[in-house]
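Quick one - inputs below.
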Amino acid sequence: MMTFKPKKIPIRVGNRYIAILNENNAKELDVRTAERIILTVKSKEITAIVDITEKNELKDNEIGLFAETWDKLKITTKDKIRVKPAQKPKTDKYIKAKLEGKPLTAKEIDEIVEDIVNDDLSDIEMTYFVAGCFARKLSDRETVNLTKSIVKHGGQLKFKDKIVMDKHCIGGVPGNRTTMIVVPIITALGYRMPKTSSRAITSPSGTADTMEVLANVTNEASKLKKIAMKVGGFITWGGGVDLAAADDKLIRVRYPLKLDPQGMLLASIMAKKFSVSSNHVLIDIPIGPQGKVKDKKDAAKLKKRFFTIGKMLGMRMKVIITSADQPVGNGIGPVLEAIDVIKVLKNEPDAPKDLRDKAIKLVTELLYLTKKYSFKYQARKTAIKTLESGKAWEQFQKIIKAQGKRRMPKVGEYKFVVRSGRSGKVTMIKNKLIATIARSAGAPKDPGAGVYINKKLGEKVRKGEALFTVYAENKTRIGYVRNLEYKKAYTIK
Amino acid sequence: MMTFKPKKIPIRVGNRYIAILNENNAKELDVRTAERIILTVKSKEITAIVDITEKNELKDNEIGLFAETWDKLKITTKDKIRVKPAQKPKTDKYIKAKLEGKPLTAKEIDEIVEDIVNDDLSDIEMTYFVAGCFARKLSDRETVNLTKSIVKHGGQLKFKDKIVMDKHCIGGVPGNRTTMIVVPIITALGYRMPKTSSRAITSPSGTADTMEVLANVTNEASKLKKIAMKVGGFITWGGGVDLAAADDKLIRVRYPLKLDPQGMLLASIMAKKFSVSSNHVLIDIPIGPQGKVKDKKDAAKLKKRFFTIGKMLGMRMKVIITSADQPVGNGIGPVLEAIDVIKVLKNEPDAPKDLRDKAIKLVTELLYLTKKYSFKYQARKTAIKTLESGKAWEQFQKIIKAQGKRRMPKVGEYKFVVRSGRSGKVTMIKNKLIATIARSAGAPKDPGAGVYINKKLGEKVRKGEALFTVYAENKTRIGYVRNLEYKKAYTIK
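Output:
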């Protein structure tokens, strides 16, 4: 035990408590960088992670504390801080064992998740955990246990309905905003569908970003529960309800290497379903050379894993494989996608047919999963009827109103049309490049920015005809797009 | 490109440049935690790692910079900082591939090491690299390439001698200070032996700590070269010469999980030999239930790896397997160990026989490695003669003088004798517990602290006779030891 004089470092750096010692004091306490110490002030106590600085930066027996620690312990400059080394978390052992190839037990996983949620693991330790799950893989059993732990240590929305529906697309396809059509149809039919979605990380828009141009997507859990009880469902941002706190923390350390350990990814997805009581779950795996999953073999494996894990969690599962060969719908970027969705729901003649078809396919699968239909075509008929009757559109407006309606921003006023250099047929559209173009144009930060697809795969095009149109909210962004190899986005043959 | 007003955070947190942005600005720049940005002030430019704070912590367009960044860019509060996102280091790809199980090429390893040395990798990225090397292992080829890269990107001491000797013990045995006897004998015989050693990390003393009670161990490379040219060799702290900068940085992230990827460990050891031009290298692997290596099979594997890698590096190698069953010598802790060494070198009658025998064994192997002796007993005779004639002691004093003699501190004045509770024979001495006791007594920070072994394995002991004696420089430390289960250190049967 040593006593220190606190020195405030006037900034917050995250949730974790960090304490800075000079080299001398660290040696005396026998602690090293990233080890833990217990700080006590009066009767308050916290565990902090050690950072070490040079001797001349902090005087002997002076401890540097960032603003969050200062506030948490209600420190004043007159206080003396008592410091002693803390035990290493025992989860370090489990993480090391995983890196060595040993499977983790349910209890071990649960303790790791608990430590993560309580900010008891440093970034280095969390990184080792992710690395272990990536290099050594997680079994289905480990994945289910991880899912349950994430749910246990996060928020939950409990519904008692026998049927709570959910859907999830593993992503990689720009413009694929089926959720905003599926939820209105399903809930118009009287089923519960509490849908949480993500924001874009590297894509031009996530469902939460697109929904946000029409409605508030950051309602609290208690409010969401009320909305779902009243209008059957919602479309909200998952990160706003803290359903998977552990998951959010892991994403931070996964991001630098873009590391997606499959088991962790599955647990992350399934935890979000499990935490809102979903029991009828449809998973959409788009495949193709440009998709996240490249071929049928990998898709079949992933399908099997989703199915097995869902079953272990007591869910009725359907996993479908779709095409990742081109964007779905015409708009890419929050406002442009919202316009597509509205057109489909309002049955407008120029509504994008592929988006409509895919949404109906998904609804059909979900309805059929209830086992209330003897044949799939009957479920499909119900889906189409609900859409064409205008009931889905009516329902969508109810959901928007319940979440809090927002005035949709305009499409970006700066545009730039990319035209075909030759006549022929569209034989390839590069999803990733289209996404990069939409992002460079400002999406999702500038909601009116993005790309409008004028020609889709297989369509004939004449020289000089528009292939796609870039929209931006300011001129600089158009300049960014012009610096890209935007012409390579289409192949015409 | 955005422009920011700098806000100084008045502390240094390490070599890496860290820049803090608020959430808004991070979004605008499209950067995330641990991503990189390029900061430009006037004509100066650096790459910094991003940390993100809440909106109310930093104003929009205000950037938080720690003291090292402030100094490096010579910032004044009036300056404007231009900021743009930087490319991800391409080594991220290699690190991810290693985690996936793909071997690394020489070029890939070299680029990773270069990035590490230049502080271009964040802790998270370095952690993934260590995890990859641990979970996927490094082949001999990868290990050799890692060794060469560490040497290339660190300091070097070049000697042109046909014979440059070196030795290394993988550790785990308290009191094992043979180096301080081997180097004087070898250099007294006219061979070059530029020996770098480590300080204790978790042990009660490293060779550098023990040597430091007699001589300065932090001479610069140029001075060390002169010393070795003048008196044949030195015994210095490796960390003081920056021979393996990459290695030191990796140790920081290895420490939290105490992760020792074997290839990385081997590269770290061999790089230190290679960087001082050693070409005749003896490796000592102590084995036993208490050692770092538990059994003969593992020892044989490790022996083979050392041998292969040394050969690939153009070294003449000898690897011996010794016992890790009890401490070597009687003293444990810097001053107590130095006293043992001096007694052996001065041929005093109470010099610890086991330490003397082991040192002679090591010298014999090194001499025999030169191929100048037809039979090992001849080499052994030379070793003994050099020691017994007093030449080694004379030579040790020359080395001390060349490095800078220090006045040896006293043995701690507080002591505590642990006596046998019964009569019998010593059948076990627990190395780890003895090390913990010596460390709790204050070693290596308090050089006079430690443990003196009164009875060794196999010795007869009467009830009430001293088994070992604890020395400390202050009373509190004796109290710490009394809190340990010190009685369990010995088994008497």
